[in-house]
Design goal:
- The chain is built from 19 helices and 23 strands.
- It is α/β, with parallel strands linked by helices.
- The protein folds into 4 domains: 208 residues, Alpha-D-Glucose-1,6-Bisphosphate, Chain A, domain 3; 89 residues, Alpha-D-Glucose-1,6-Bisphosphate, subunit A, domain 3 (Alpha-D-Glucose-1,6-Bisphosphate, Chain A, domain 3, 3-Layer(aba) Sandwich), CATH 3.40.120.10; 110 residues, 3-Layer(aba) Sandwich (Alpha-D-Glucose-1,6-Bisphosphate, Chain A, domain 3); 127 residues, TATA-Binding Protein (2-Layer Sandwich).
- Strand 9 and strand 10 form a beta hairpin.
- Helix 4 packs across helix 8.
- The chain is globular and about 75 Å long.
- The two termini are 37 Å apart.
C-alpha cells in the first residue's frame, strides 16, 4: 500500500488533498489509509458518487481527471463523431463542483473533444436537456443530488439524453481503470476556448430550456394560475432561479421562496439531510406556506431533479403527498391533456400499480421497468412510436418527467405541471385532495410502503432461499403469480409460465389474490433485504375515504408484520 500511496501523492494535482493524505501518513492512521486505498470508487450506471477526500476511494480532482479521461477515450472508441459532437458539462452548488467540472472539461478538450460548459451552476435537468438540444455525444453533471454535504458525484448521460445503461457503464469503467495507470493530459480552458474546443453555455442556454418548457404542449394549461399560491424552497440547491422563472412565465403570481434556503450552499446549513423525503427537510417551506396560507408547499432537491409537495388541507394544515400520489395525480392529469389512446406512460416495479390501472381505463399504453430513471427513459425511447407517443413516467422516490423535453427526472417542469393541475382544479372548485379521492373511488385506494430488513451476516443468499421454498401464501393471502426477474420467469398458481422482458435482476415479485403485492429485493452490497408492499382497498359509494384509508392501513400493517415474521429465520436478531 505504501507504494500505491506514494504514486497517488505524485499524481494528485490538488494541494488540499495531498496535505490531507500526508497528514494521515504522518499520524499513522492506518485504518483510514486502508479504507481510502482498499479500492476505487466504482463507476456504474449512476456514474460516481462518494465522500470528498484524498485517495482513490473518494471524490477528488485526481479521481475526476482519471474518470473524465476514461470517459473521453470510451466515447472516441464508441461514437464516430464524438469529438465534434462534444460533451455538455454542468455542476451544482457544492464546494468542489465547479473545480471538478472544469477539470473534466480540461481533460476532454485535451483529447480534442468539444466541451459545452455551463458558466455557472445548473440544475441537473438542464444538462440532460442540453445533451439532446445540442446533439452532444454525452453529458456530465457534477452533483451529489440530495446526499449529505460531505458527498459529491459525477453523473453521465449518453447521447440520447438519458443516463447511461449497460454496456456503457462497464465499458467506461474499464477505460477509467486504464487511465488510472497512465499520465494524464489537461488543456488550459482559455487555450481550449481559443482553439474552439470550449463553448461556454451562458444565459442563452438557460433561456433556451426555459423557452422550451414554456412552449411545451403539455404545459399550456393557464387556467387561473393567479388564484393558486405556492411556497417554494430550493433546499440550498440550484433550482430557485429557474423554478421561479417558469412559474412566473405560466402566470403564477403568488410564489413565495424560502429566503434562507434560496441560494446555493453546499453546506446545507438549515437541513440535516437535503432530501425532501427526510423528516424535517420540508419544515421551512411548510412554515412559509402557513405564513401566506399558500395552496402548495413545493420543494426541489438540491440539483432540482426531484419534486416534493405538501398540500393545504381543509383544516388549514399541510400534508405531504407521497411520490406515488404525485405520480398518479400527474399521470391522470396529463392523460386528459392528450389523446390517451396515442400515449405511453410508465413506472418502475416498486412504484404503485395505480397508474397502470388509470392508463388501462383510458386505453393508454403502459410500461414497467426496473428501479431507476435510467430504465424509465431508455425503455420509453424503445417503446414509443407514432401511435404511442411518450407522455409521462415516474418513480416513487419523487422522480418525474413530463413529455420528452428531458429524458431524466425533471423536478422543475414537474412542479409546473402540478401547479397547473392544482389551478385547473381550483377553477372548478376542487382541491388536490378531492381529485385524489376521485381517483381512489374509481380505481381503488392503493397504499404503498417500504421496509428494509437486516439479515444475519452469515445467512445464505436470501433470494436463493426464497426460490427454493416459494411461498404459496403470504399473510393468509394466496400467491397467484410470482415474477422472478433473476430467471426472467413469470409463474402463475396453475403452473403456467411466461417469460419477462426485463433485464435480469435479483428481484422477486409476489402478486396476491386480493390485489396486494410484495416485492423482495436483496441488497447486493450488504446483508439487507428491501421489501416493497402494496395493498388495494376498494371504496363503495357510501364509504368514506377516511374509513377506507384506515382499512388499507390495517391491511398494510398486517401484511408487513406477517411477511416479516415469515422471514424470521433469515433475519438478524
Amino acid at each position: 500500500m505504501k507504494e500505491q500511496i506514494a504514486q497517488w501523492l505524485a499524481r494528485d494535482p490538488d494541494p488540499v488533498t495531498r496535505k490531507e493524505l500526508q497528514d494521515l501518513i504522518d499520524t499513522g492512521n492506518e485504518t483510514e489509509l486502508a479504507e481510502r486505498f482498499s479500492g476505487r470508487l466504482a463507476f456504474g450506471t449512476a456514474g460516481l458518487r462518494g465522500i470528498v477526500g484524498a485517495g482513490p476511494n473518494r471524490m477528488n480532482r485526481l479521481v475526476i481527471q482519471e474518470t473524465a479521461t476514461g470517459l473521453g477515450q470510451y466515447l472516441q472508441d464508441t461514437v464516430d463523431l464524438a469529438t465534434q459532437q462534444g460533451v455538455v458539462i454542468g455542476y451544482d452548488g457544492r464546494p468542489d463542483s465547479k473545480r471538478f467540472a472544469h477539470d473534466a472539461a480540461a481533460v476532454l478538450t485535451a483529447q480534442g473533444i468539444k466541451v459545452y460548459l455551463t458558466v455557472t451552476v445548473a440544475p441537473t435537468p438542464l444538462v440532460a436537456y442540453g445533451v439532446t438540444a445540442l446533439k452532444a455525444a454525452a453529458g456530465i453533471v457534477v452533483t451529489a443530488s440530495h446526499n449529505p454535504p460531505a458527498y459529491n458525484g459525477f453523473k453521465v448521460y449518453w447521447g440520447n439524453g438519458a443516463q447511461i445503461i449497460p454496456p456503457h457503464d462497464k465499458g467506461i469503467a474499464a477505460k477509467i481503470d486504464k487511465a488510472a495507470t497512465q499520465p494524464l493530459t489537461l488543456m488550459d480552458l482559455q487555450e481550449a476556448e481559443h482553439q474552439g474546443l470550449l463553448v461556454w453555455l451562458d444565459d442563452e442556454f438557460y433561456s433556451d430550456y426555459r423557452d422550451t418548457v414554456q412552449q411545451s404542449a403539455l404545459l399550456q394549461n393557464h387556467t387561473q394560475p393567479e388564484t393558486v399560491s405556492i411556497a417554494y424552497t430550493a433546499m440550498h440547491g440550484v433550482g430557485a432561479e429557474m423554478a421561479e422563472a417558469l412559474l412566473a412565465d405560466a402566470g403564477f403570481t403568488q410564489v413565495f421562496s424560502v429566503a434562507a434556503q434560496r441560494e446555493p450552499d453546499g453546506s446545507f446549513p438549515t437541513v440535516n439531510f437535503p432530501n425532501p423525503e427526510e423528516p424535517g427537510a420540508m419544515d421551512m417551506v411548510i412554515a412559509e406556506a402557513q405564513k401566506h396560507q399558500a395552496t402548495l408547499a413545493c420543494a426541489n432537491d438540491p440539483d432540482a431533479d426531484r419534486f416534493a409537495v405538501a398540500v393545504r388541507t381543509e383544516e388549514g394544515d399541510y400534508k405531504m403527498l407521497t411520490g406515488d400520489q404525485v405520480g398518479v395525480l400527474l399521470g391522470h392529469y396529463l392523460l386528459t391533456r392528450v389523446n390517451p389512446e396515442e400515449s405511453l406512460v410508465g413506472t418502475t416495479i416498486v412504484s404503485s400499480s395505480l397508474l397502470q390501472k388509470v392508463a388501462t381505463a383510458v386505453d393508454a399504453a403502459y410500461y414497467q421497468t426496473l428501479t431507476g430513471f435510467k430504465w424509465l427513459t431508455n425503455v420509453a425511447m424503445q417503446k414509443q412510436s407514432d401511435s404511442n407517443r411518450f407522455l409521462f413516467a415516474y418513480e416513487e422516490a419523487l422522480g418525474y418527467t413530463v413529455g420528452n423535453m428531458v429524458w431524466d427526472k425533471d423536478g422543475l417542469s414537474a412542479m409546473l405541471a402540478f401547479a397547473q393541475l392544482t389551478a385547473e382544479l381550483a377553477a372548478r372548485g376542487r382541491t388536490v385532495w378531492d381529485q385524489l379521492e376521485a381517483i381512489y373511488r374509481e380505481h381503488g385506494l392503493y397504499l404503498n410502503a417500504q421496509v428494509s430488513i437486516a439479515l444475519s451476516p452469515d445467512s445464505p443468499p436470501i433470494g436463493d432461499s426464497l426460490r427454493q421454498q416459494p411461498p404459496e401464501e403470504i399473510a393468509g393471502r394466496n400467491v397467484i403469480r410470482v415474477d422472478d426477474l433473476k430467471t426472467s420467469r413469470r409463474q402463475y398458481a396453475d403452473g403456467t409460465v411466461e417469460s419477462i422482458d426485463l433485464p435480469a435482476s435479483d428481484v422477486l415479485i409476489y402478486f396476491l389474490e386480493d390485489e396486494s403485492r410484495v416485492v423482495v429485493r436483496p441488497s447486493g452490497t450488504e446483508p439487507k433485504l428491501k421489501c416493497y408492499y402494496e395493498v388495494v382497498e376498494m371504496i363503495d359509494q357510501v364509504d368514506t375515504l377516511e374509513h377506507a384509508a384506515q382499512r388499507a392501513q390495517s391491511s398494510m400493517d398486517e401484511l408487513i408484520r406477517r411477511h416479516q415474521n415469515s422471514l424470521t429465520g433469515m433475519t438478524a436478531d
